[in-house]
Design a protein that fits this description.
With 457 residues, this protein is α+β, with helices and mostly antiparallel strands. The protein folds into two domains: 3-265 and 404-450, 2-methylcitrate dehydratase PrpD (Orthogonal Bundle), CATH 1.10.4100.10; 271-394, 2-methylcitrate dehydratase PrpD (60s Ribosomal Protein L30, Chain: A, 2-Layer Sandwich). The protein contains 18 helices and eight strands. The strands form three sheets. Strands 6-5-7-8 form a four-stranded mixed beta sheet. α3 (45-57) packs antiparallel against α4, α11 (274-285) runs parallel beside α14 (324-334) and α16 (407-418) runs antiparallel to α17 (424-435). The longest helix has 28 residues, at 120-147. The N and C termini lie far apart (53 Å).
């Protein structure tokens, strides 16, 4: 069976009873984390602009805009909420797939589930379908896809969103293959946007919207290429990728659950900066401060250098969050890399800019040998004013599945992010609903809370 058809058959057949308890429990954490990220992102300029556009173009609809007492069209809500969820570099991440699955699958499935009266269990089952398909395709395309300049969350994310939407709408295997084909031809996301453009956030929102549209069209008989992934000419793999590990797209599908390998973010920056932040944290615990530092040398993989190792020039919040020079400097100065470090007033702070002059980033070929699994590995050398050199090696970041955040950490993060947009009682009730998701027959209580009377900006 061809790859697209094989994946489509699995997507269309997935039910709640197929998903083991440990994968289901992790899916609930992914959901809570994404809702917090989406609520916080809804209060950012790009989140507000996206929601304004969604309301303007689709003023009457059946899907909620998170963090605002309003509804709009289903695909427009997926776009706005997806943009918001990816709106502050805090959303979940899968290391080997190089993508943020929550920001594309959860807004797509949420909007459809609300519009079509699905239960929370049906909604989360669809989310799991989207994660499993998107992550496997991300693993299969490997690092070469991103090194070509594609943002995997935008490209592969479109397929993940379509998988979630197709499962939620109950499409047949053939119609699901059509949805994947329609999604594949919309897949896009240019990673040059990481250097300062709001459109980097939009990659996730557009992927979610495209997935919704793909499934909605396929439901009505609109056809897509049912060999869209594997077509030797003009297919997703042949056009957008280098070497592709095709069997990885379906290996142990339904037996090994990739969603369990999804990690969460402890810092508000690109995941490729996190191991460096952890290394600096270890150095600071040894008593090293910015004043002691003659030079900080950071050695990282080719993929990481491409993502975050470019010369920092103040160009907005996105550029700062995607730059390891900046995140390293603020960690040294503030001992933190979270929301406050990306205030507009900090982005060209003279102290930050002066410290960046003492930071060097270099490619370490040894970290490429492990492929995507070691793309975050770093060696950080701190040369002190007295000539002493301290070295810290970090292979995986805090928040990864090797060094996971606890459920309590994730709930605490959710509270902190969500309370920017919603009153405290609504925040606590959302936690309760997500925890008891199997007992909820209707999306409406959760949807109402997500758009409950917002806090004043």
């Amino acid at each position: 069976m061809a790859v697209t058809a094989r994946l489509a058959e699995w997507i269309s057949g997935l039910r709640r009873t197929d998903i083991p308890d440990n994968a289901w429990a992790h899916a609930k954490l992914c959901l809570l984390d994404a809702l917090g990220c989406g609520l916080f992102g809804s209060r950012q300029p790009w989140g507000r602009i996206s929601a304004d556009a969604a309301q303007d173009l689709n003023p009457a609809g059946r899907a909620s805009l998170w963090g605002r007492d309003a509804r709009c069209g289903v695909d427009a809500a997926a776009m706005a909420n997806g943009t918001a969820t990816h709106g502050f570099e805090l959303d979940d991440i899968h290391l080997r797939a190089s993508m943020h699955p929550g920001a594309v699958t959860i807004p797509a499935a949420f909007a459809l589930a609300e519009a079509y009266g699905k239960s929370l269990a049906e909604f989360l089952t669809a989310v799991v379908a989207g994660y499993e398909i998107g992550l496997r395709i991300g693993i299969a395309v490997g690092l070469g896809h991103g090194l070509r300049g594609h943002h995997t969350t935008g490209t592969v994310g479109t397929l993940a969103a379509a998988a979630a939407a197709a499962n939620l709408l109950g499409l047949s295997a053939d119609a699901t293959a059509d949805a994947l084909g329609i999604a594949a031809t919309q897949a896009a996301g240019l990673h040059g946007a990481r250097m300062g453009a709001m459109s980097k956030r939009f990659h996730a929102g557009r992927a979610a919207q495209s997935g919704v549209l793909a499934a909605a069209l396929a439901k009505r008989g609109f056809t897509g290429s049912r060999t869209a992934l594997e077509q030797p000419f003009g297919g997703f793999f042949s056009t957008l990728c280098d070497a592709v590990d095709v069997p990885a797209t379906y290996a142990e599908l339904g037996e090994r659950w990739e969603i369990r390998e999804v990690g969460f973010k402890a810092y508000a920056s690109c995941g490729s900066t996190h191991t460096t932040v952890d290394a600096i944290d270890a150095l600071m615990k040894q008593g090293i401060t910015a004043r002691d530092l003659k030079e900080l040398r950071i050695h990282m993989s080719k993929k990481a250098v491409s993502n975050v190792g470019w010369k920092y020039v103040p160009a907005g919040v996105v550029a700062a969050q995607m730059n390891c020079y900046y995140t390293s400097a603020v960690k040294l100065l503030d001992d933190e890399v979270f929301v406050d470090q990306f205030a507009e007033s900090r982005l060209a702070d003279p102290r930050v800019m002066a410290l960046i002059e003492r930071i060097r980033i270099a490619h370490e070929p040894a970290f490429d040998a492990g492929g995507a699994a070691t793309r975050h590995a770093v060696r950080v050398e701190a040369e002190l004013n007295d000539g002493t050199v301290k070295t810290v090696n970090v292979e995986q970041r805090r928040g990864s599945t090797r060094f996971p955040l606890s459920r309590e950490d994730i709930v605490r993060k959710f509270r902190g992010l969500a309370m920017v947009a919603l009153p405290g009682p609504s925040v606590e009730r959302i936690i309760e609903l997500v925890n008891g998701i199997d007992a909820m027959r209707d999306m409406q209580p959760l949807a109402a809370l997500m758009r409950s009377t917002p806090m004043t900006p």
